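It would be a great kindness if you could assist me with a short task in structural biology. I am sending you one protein, given as its amino acid sequence and as whole-number tokens for its backbone shapes. I would ask you to consider whether the tokens describe a fold that such a sequence might reasonably adopt. The full record is reproduced below for your convenience.
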Amino acid sequence: MNIAIIILNWNGRQLLEQFLPSVITYSKDADIYIADNASTDDSVDFVRSNFPFIKIIQNIENGGYAKGYNDALKKIGADIFCLLNSDVEVTEGWLQPISELFKNEPNTAIAQPKLLDYKNKDSFEYAGAAGGFIDKYGYPYCRGRIFNSIEKDHGQYNDSTSIFWASGACFFIRKQVFQELKGFDISFFAHMEEIDLCWRAKNRGYGIKYIAASVVYHVGGATLNSTSPKKTYLNFRNSLYTLTKNSSGILLPKILVRLCLDGIAGIKFILELKPQHTWAIIRAHFSYYYRLSRLLEQRDQPSKVDKYWHKKSIVWSFFVNKKRQFNSL
């Protein structure tokens, strides 16, 4: 069972120079690819000059995370794809536990390692921490991270367990399942497309796992940092997309609750003197309503299984009940 590591790059010379060596050193049994999203810097020339054994796939446009990977993975033959952010430092032995998982559990289609913060290595990292879950209104959170509350790593999640979604920062998936699901939804462009893909996999009965024995360190925010209104826009919009496409049952009450909760978030941004983020939320909702008919058509899935970890509102648990850690939910 062979693994292909695919690093999506867009003008990322500095990141490749910093983080690619750890991938090369600790990934001897895998093929490494750079999928370039029409970069205009010298990152491709840098890789060719310094690492000629690395395979390069050049996409004709910057289609973001979703289209970038969809286009590149069509050209790669491997049993397992590892979609790895360019700002990730891997560790010795990181691939072995993942490889064993896929060999021993044929129904497991997707996996992620433990994601720790590169800048604060005793803490979990925002993008995926110890595996992702979702509440009934489509808000994602992680073991080790709820909203912006991030836990220290004290070994509390040193296990292998089923999760609802795996982080796109370091995302393992069987090639046949990626093809069956027709890849990422390119309308997402970036952010939360991996949650949508995982939910679609769940709706088909596939398993998703977190493996703590595999450890990587993620910088995070290297493309869009947390203060970017564009990131706010994509996260709110794509969360609504995901909820509409994949949840079962009556949709309208969930969307009405989301409208209220997102409105409160917009007011909070105004009080924090961040009106550009409030406008990003408003734009996200208009974009969602514009695309709603298409999203409703995409709700026709083989089977729907809403197996939330948190069947209530994570917003209520966090802000009202002051539940700041996953194990307290």
User: Anything to note?
Assistant: The first helix runs from residue 13 to 25. The mean pLDDT is 94. Residues 67 and 140 are 22 Å apart (CA to CA). The chain has ten helices and 14 strands.
